[in-house]
Fold:
Amino acid sequence: MDWMAWTWPTAAFFGVIALLLITFTILAIKFPETPRTGILRIETTRGDRLFITLLGSAFINLAWLGLVGANQPYALILCLVYAAAVFRWV
Amino acid sequence: MDKTPNQKAWFLVLPVLVLVAFSAVIPLMTVVNYSVQDTFGGNQFFWAGLEWFDELLHSERMWDALGRQLLFSAIILAIEVPLGILVALNMPKKGVWVSVCLVLMSLPLLIPWNVVGTIWQIFGRVDIGLLGHTLAALGIEYNYTQNTLDAWITVIVMDVWHWTSLVALLAYAGLQSIPDAYYQAAKIDQASRWKVFRYIELPKMMGVLMIAILLRFMDSFMIYTEPFVVTGGGPGNATTFLSIDLVKMALGQFDLGPAAAFSIMYFLVILLISWVFYTVMTNLDKKGS
Structure:
């Protein structure tokens, strides 16, 4: 695996994503997903909302880096707020 | 009768999963690893954190390339979609000419990208190219290697020449699927040609048009070969689109770290746009049914 140039932070990053995917798969098996329509007026399932959360979080992090440029971990707090909002209202 | 859910079938998807992991997921993970490090070759890496992302987000080079890319995609969509619809509307609906038209329309689509680039590269040359030579003979100054506007016009006309057929063929397929009854009803109501188009043909074509727009947007947003062959990104950086810039950075300068960060941002933008298109398309389908 040397050629992949692993680092601890990137390994942790992918670990978290893998964990999220596994959790949501187990959730989907235990409690089957029912689509609903939220403020975006599109039908979303739990998995869709996870996708919107992850993609949005990537952009939030980039925007923070570009506009604020310091204290990057605070962007993660913003992402959590965003995630909660997505799961509540989208 | 209710179907019994059987999740075991998911195991049949395993081979695809392995294939995708091998060809897409693992390389993408490697790119993420590269994006936070610096290397001077020899597979030795040094931690750089978010430095490359920070640098790129504040670099004029990337924003300019993104601006050019968006402008290019917007221009070719604004030309190819209406033109494709117009061509489709004027194509014969019955008879032998249908096959002739279909074959003619699909010809440009069958030509490989680098060949299209080479054709236009020679076609536009002032010394030996038909187009360049004719324009020069007419007294029109045209030189795509030195003039920015000429380079842009050449690249755009080339793309229109190459890909309008795709939009036309998709729109044609959409038009062919409209039952005659709709037209008869419009005739009884004495609807004008415009109203027939606006209220019958356009809504019925919407599904395929969205696919055409998505395909053309994605392809134009990732365009590399044709402008690379024709202009090489020049004059100066005038036609350096995102992928051309990325290749320059990754393979020309061998700046793997910044290029990886660039790739990830490029990928995120494409992912976002694809998702928006996909969502709009599936919602249209749901409304339609």
